Amino acid sequence: MNWLNSEAFVLLDQHIIWSDMIGNIFGLIALTLGWRRSVWTWPVQFLAGLILFAAFYGHLTGSAGKQVVVMLVALYGWWQWNRGKGQGEDGHISVRFATWRERAAMTAAAAAGTVAVALLFKAYPSLSWDPWPDAYIFVGTIVAMYAQAKGMVEFWFAWLLVDLVGVPLNFANGYAFSGFVYVIYGALVLWGMRDWWLRSRKGPRPALEGAPA
Question: How many angstroms separate the CA atoms of 45 and 92, rounded?
Answer without folding.
Answer: 18
